[in-house]
């Protein structure tokens, strides 16, 4: 397990926005949904598409490549063509900074 990595300042992750950070080789997308932060691996389990930048509706992010949807709260795959959940990571705010880490 690695240490926490800094994502950005809280002022750079406002509601409706996302940021991507790397913990080693792991791309982690952090989303601000109505003031709550959710961190997931930025790789679609269907065919490796980047989820960051995909359309968001409620707590769901849609993969821009083929339209799979995932619940950002749980990582659960919600529709085809993805069936395997995406990894979900811890996220915290400390000293006005956003932090996450690959805790697998
Ligand atoms: S790569 Fe995401 S739906 Fe195909």
TrEMBL record:
Record SUPFAM superfamilies: ISP domain (SSF50022)
GO molecular function, one term: metal ion binding
CDD domains hit by this protein: Rieske_RO_ferredoxin
Key words, A-Z: 2Fe-2S, Iron, Iron-sulfur, Metal-binding
Pfam families according to UniProt: Rieske
Gene3D superfamilies cross-referenced by the UniProt entry: Rieske [2Fe-2S] iron-sulphur domain
Iron in keyword set: yes
Highest taxon, organism lineage: Bacteria
The keyword Metal-binding belongs to this UniProt entry's keyword annotation: yes
InterPro entries: Rieske_2Fe-2S, Rieske_2Fe-2S_sf
Domain Rieske: start-end pairs: 5-100
Protein name in UniProt: Rieske domain-containing protein
């Amino acid at each position: 397990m690695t240490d926490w990595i800094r994502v950005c300042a809280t002022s750079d992750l406002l509601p409706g926005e996302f940021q991507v950070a790397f913990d080693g080789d792991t791309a982690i997308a952090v989303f601000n949904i109505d003031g709550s932060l959710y961190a997931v691996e930025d790789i679609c389990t269907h065919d490796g598409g980047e989820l960051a930048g995909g359309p968001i509706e409620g707590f769901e992010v849609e993969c821009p490549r083929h339209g799979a949807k995932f619940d950002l709260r749980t990582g659960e795959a919600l529709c085809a063509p993805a069936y395997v959940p995406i990894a979900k990571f811890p996220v915290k705010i400390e000293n006005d900074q956003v932090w996450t880490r690959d805790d697998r």
